[in-house]
Prior knowledge:
Layout lengths: L2 H12 L21 H15 L6 E6 L5 H18 L4 E7 L6 H12 L10 H15 L2 E7 L7 H10 L8 E8 L10 H7 L1 E6 L4 H15 L7 H13 L4 H17 L7 H21 L3 H16 L3 E2 L6 E4 H14 L7 H13 L3 E5 L9 E5 L3 H13 L2
Parallel strand pairs: 1-4, 1-5, 2-3, 3-4
Antiparallel strand pairs: 6-7, 7-9, 8-9
Helix pairs in contact: 2-3, 4-5, 4-6, 6-7, 8-9, 8-10, 9-10, 10-11, 11-15, 12-13, 12-14, 12-15
Amino acid sequence: MRLLEDIVEKKRRKSVFKDRDAISIHFVPERLPFRERQLREILEEVSELALDKKANNLFLYGKIGTGKTAVAKKVLRELREFAEKNRLRISGKYINCKNYNTKYKVICRVAEEFYPSKRFFGFSSSYVFEKILDFLNKNGTKLVVVLDEIDKVKDVDDLLYKLTRANSDVEKGGIYVIGVSNNLLFKNRLNMQTKSSLCEREFVFPPYNAHELEKILLERVGLGFREGVVGGDVIRYISALAAQESGDARRALILLQKTGEVAEESSLHEITIDVVKNAKERMEVELISSMIATLPKQHKLVLYSISMLNIKGSGIKGISGEKRVLTSGEIYDYYRNLAKELSLNVVSLRQFKEYLNELNLYNLIETRASGAGFRGTTTLTSIAFNAFQIKEILDKEFFDF
């Protein structure tokens, strides 16, 4: 046996993983526990296309890690398989709008579905779209396009209007949109012309509870880890942590995968809760960095203000100790002064409160309405991660530390 083969074989024998991909957040299992109802209802909608009828555009909302993307991908997979088996002219395209964040990029990506050997970057938007319409007309193809993180598209009004109005410009075929967003307020940003052209249905995905997360992780452990590596106590511990942190299955899976990697680095053959704690500490820095990196500058400034107020000991001490409970007014005052110091625009209080809502949807903060003991009504905010870690990341953004 050659040296490289010998090294790889030894690593395989030592690995705690049976199939590392099965633990990945990108893996879509055959079964989607606790999302069967949403999957069935969405398939009911797109099944109209198989009956040669028009279908509604769909929007899937919910916090990060609530199964929206997995369900959307599963819908596309079933649709493609059914169309191929029954020789129907139905196609599906998944696009992550974090990577394709303009109307032009999305349209070029759609065109590549029909013309795989041709690259359209450099041609005008109108030309590319005409090529799409021409293909639909000639072939009678119906395209279902999933736009994941649709709120990341800069000119989203133009994109949605163009895609949805396409069905008026073709005699055969058509384009149907499944928009996916973590932002429940996303549709409020669309202009009236776009809203009137959508004819959509909405599905809201609730967070998972601890019991549901435990069942999800149990299935993934069976697929991804060798027998006896991960015990029930570890699964329950990770599930409880994720349930406390907004019911985020994605975060639970990332922690599970990171725990396996930490165990391998330490040549362990069994994962304990101590290994999970070690992995969680390392994972949080990576996770916070990746989440913050995608935020617009003003959102980062609001988050930085919250972390600084926590470090300074402002607000009221929360149940969890280090996390402070802050009012929207004191955060806004700090944010406004910081924005002026950095020569950045100061947004209105109303816009600022929208940023708080969005940071809550991204699971970076937790918000709730004030109750007894507060004069009037205000938004109470606590930070979801370590304030010092967030400050360290954002110091580099604002102060070049």
